[in-house]
Structure formats: structure tokens, C-alpha cells
Write a sequence for this structure.
């Protein structure tokens, strides 16, 4: 026990001298968690709370185009900026380049006329099918003039699809109202009352969103709940920069050989490194979680809600940290130089984070990456944390994620011992 305590003190002194390693282990993940959470939270607010500026150039003078603008405004997603019908497409796009708005629509001339003509065709066809109209003239369906949608290239495809879906909904409402008026006018030869029209077209069923959870709570996960656990894992695995270099440095300066002349074993030094850096991993998690709980609300970001199963949270953090430490030592054992350990260690962690679901959600991964994802320890770490933070589960609910993580950790430990024996270091 005395030898282990002395070795741990030595490793702590070596660690405190590694300023770059400490920066990468603490400062970098904190900055990443704050910046990425802020960006994602801003995106959520843009979609859910703020309105998207929309330039509307209405070149039609009919009723349908005015109803379309009203329907778009009623959606609540857009802040409509009216544009003179005399403006050219070039002038409109110039305003978009100046960032007056990221989206613009042009309602073409004759839009209302084509909408009404198509509505009359649909109404007549429906009445003939019901035997309520004897006119056998079929005619041809009238294709409404297309609406031009301009968007700034900075908008991502998912956001453009959301905007287009909202505009399609408004356009469909206008067309349905036109068909309703035509049917009512054909039957009663009167205009449909506004109250009846609103009841028919506006009485839509509501959608109630409920996130699933194991504990029965209905708290909606926010950007903090997603990002803080993810970048905590990333911080743990970046221990490879400091720990991997430390192992390589001891191999190069002859520490292994000197240990063989002393009444001790390198296994004591190996346990010491794992205890020391596992404590660092736990401290990383505690610091980042504390920032999410106390600092984020002061910065205007959503507060991190800790899981109810704190014992399960500690155990998951302990296993994730142990896996990160094991991976770092494994890199140090097989690397020949500190440059190799730092370069390969950093790149491999970024790659495992990418395929593990930290940088890109796992549910959007192509099928060809699914097998590789199962091999990434960061994937199992993230799934374990998400089971606690997002799904409200307990330790028993995430055993299917913890067991593969433990298996990877034990495999890394075996590889470390085999590598040390093959190099005759123990």
C-alpha cells in the first residue's frame, strides 16, 4: 500500500506539470460544451420561439394570394416583410444577400385566377360523382401557377424542408377554402358564411407531444441534456494526450528498466496511473456537470437536470472513466514516441466520437456504419448516459449498455498486459 501511495503521489506531480494535457482535459471540453450547447439552443429557439424573416413579393391582385399571405402569417413561424410587386427577382435576391431575410417567396400574377379555376373543376367533378350535377362537361384540371421560393445557401436542408412544409400547409389551406366555396356556391348559389368556412377549415385536431421516459416524467429534453453528457465523455477520452505521453516518456527514459532493479513491479505503477487518472476523469465529470447545473442558467442556457439515480450516474461515470484510462494506457504501451501517442490518440478519439454518436446522432448513421458504431466505446458511454439523462432510467435499465462497455475495458486491459509482456517491460 505504501508503494502504491508513493507512486500515486509521483503520478500526480507529473500530471500537474503537464499544462497542455490539463488544458485539453478541462478547458477544451468546458468550452466545447458551452459553445455547442449555445449554438444548438439558439437553433431550437429559432425554430420554436423566434420568427424567420420572410420577404413576400405578391404580384397577384386576387383574393387567394391575400389569403395565402394571411395563412403564412397565421403559422407563427415567419416574420413577414412585404415587398413591392414592382421589385425584380434580382432586387429581391440582393436584399437576401444583405441578410434582410434568409427566405423569400414570389406569388406570380394570375395565381388567384388559376386557384379558383382549379377549385371549380374539382368541385364540379365531385358533384358529378355524387350525382348532384348533370353537366357532363369534364374539362381539364387547371394547374395553379407555382410559387417561387428563394432561400439563402446557409440554410441547411432540414431547416429548408421545415420551411417548405409550413408553406405547403398554408397553400393547401387556401386551395381547400377555394374548393369549399365552389362546392357551396354550386349547391346553394350563395357565398359560404365565414363562420362555417372557419369551422370546416380551421377545426383541426391538436398534436400533443410527449417524450417517452422510464420514470413517467414528461420533461422535454433540451440542448444541455444532450450536449453535457456527450462532451463529458469526449473530455474523459482526451486523457490519452497526457496519459499516453506519460507512458511513452517512461519507456524512453528507462523508468521501466529501473523498476526492475527495485523490489516492486510495474503493475503497481500501472494501477497507480489508473487510479490517478480515473480520479481526474471523475473530477472532469463533476466540473462539467456542475457548470451545466449552476453556470448555464446564468448564461441564459437551459439548466442540466441530473438523473434521479445518482448512484447509477456515479457508476456509469466510473466505468466510462476507466475505459478512457485503459484506452490511453493502451495507446502509450504501443506508441514508440510521444508524437505518435498524441497524434494517433487524438485522431482516434475524434473518429470514435464521430462514429459513436457524439458529433452526429446515431439514428442518422448509414447502415454501413452501424457495425463500426458498436465497436466504439464512446457509443456505449453515450447510450449509458442518455439512458439516465434523457430516458429517466435507472442502473438496471442501462445494463445492456454498461456490459459491452465493461467488455471493451477488460479487453483493453488484456491488450495492455500482453503488450507489456511482449516488450518485456513486466
Amino acid at each position: 500500500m505504501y508503494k502504491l501511495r508513493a507512486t500515486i503521489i509521483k503520478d500526480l506531480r507529473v500530471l500537474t506539470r503537464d499544462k497542455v494535457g490539463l488544458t485539453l482535459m478541462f478547458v477544451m471540453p468546458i468550452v466545447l460544451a458551452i459553445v455547442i450547447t449555445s449554438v444548438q439552443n439558439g437553433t431550437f429557439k429559432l425554430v420554436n420561439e423566434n420568427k424567420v424573416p420572410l420577404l413576400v413579393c405578391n404580384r397577384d391582385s386576387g383574393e387567394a394570394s391575400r389569403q395565402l399571405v394571411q395563412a403564412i402569417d397565421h403559422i407563427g413561424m415567419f416574420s413577414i416583410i412585404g415587398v413591392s410587386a414592382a421589385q425584380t427577382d434580382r432586387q429581391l435576391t440582393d436584399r437576401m444577400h444583405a441578410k434582410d431575410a434568409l427566405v423569400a417567396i414570389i406569388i406570380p400574377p394570375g395565381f388567384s385566377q388559376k386557384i379558383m379555376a382549379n377549385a371549380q373543376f374539382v368541385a364540379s367533378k365531385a358533384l358529378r360523382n355524387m350525382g348532384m350535377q348533370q353537366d357532363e362537361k369534364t374539362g381539364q384540371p387547371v394547374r395553379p401557377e407555382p410559387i417561387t421560393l428563394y432561400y439563402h445557401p446557409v440554410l441547411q436542408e432540414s431547416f429548408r424542408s421545415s420551411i417548405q412544409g409550413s408553406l405547403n400547409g398554408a397553400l393547401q389551406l387556401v386551395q381547400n377554402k377555394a374548393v369549399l366555396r365552389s362546392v357551396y356556391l354550386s349547391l346553394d348559389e350563395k357565398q359560404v358564411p365565414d363562420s362555417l368556412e372557419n369551422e370546416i377549415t380551421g377545426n383541426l385536431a391538436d398534436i400533443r407531444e410527449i417524450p417517452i421516459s422510464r420514470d413517467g416524467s414528461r420533461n422535454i429534453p433540451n440542448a444541455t441534456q444532450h450536449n453535457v453528457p456527450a462532451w463529458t465523455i469526449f473530455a474523459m477520452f482526451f486523457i490519452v494526450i497526457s496519459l499516453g505521453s506519460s507512458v511513452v516518456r517512461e519507456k524512453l527514459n528507462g523508468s521501466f528498466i529501473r523498476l526492475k532493479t527495485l523490489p516492486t513491479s510495474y503493475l503497481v505503477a500501472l494501477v497507480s496511473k489508473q487510479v490517478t487518472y480515473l480520479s481526474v476523469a471523475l473530477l472532469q465529470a463533476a466540473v462539467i456537470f456542475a457548470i451545466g447545473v449552476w453556470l448555464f442558467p446564468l448564461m441564459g442556457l437551459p439548466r442540466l437536470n441530473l438523473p434521479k439515480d445518482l448512484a447509477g450516474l456515479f457508476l456509469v461515470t466510473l466505468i466510462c472513466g476507466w475505459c478512457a484510462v485503459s484506452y490511453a494506457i493502451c495507446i502509450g504501451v504501443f506508441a514508440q514516441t510521444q508524437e505518435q501517442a498524441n497524434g494517433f490518440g487524438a485522431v482516434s478519439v475524434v473518429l470514435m466520437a464521430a462514429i459513436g454518436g457524439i458529433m452526429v446522432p446515431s439514428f442518422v448513421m448509414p447502415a454501413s456504419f452501424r457495425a463500426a458504431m458498436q465497436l466504439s466505446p464512446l457509443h456505449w458511454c453515450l447510450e449509458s448516459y442518455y439512458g439516465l439523462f434523457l430516458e429517466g432510467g435507472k442502473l438496471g435499465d442501462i445494463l445492456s449498455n454498461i456490459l459491452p462497455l465493461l467488455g471493451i475495458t477488460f479487453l483493453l486491459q488484456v491488450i495492455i498486459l500482453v503488450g507489456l509482456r511482449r516488450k518485456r517491460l513486466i
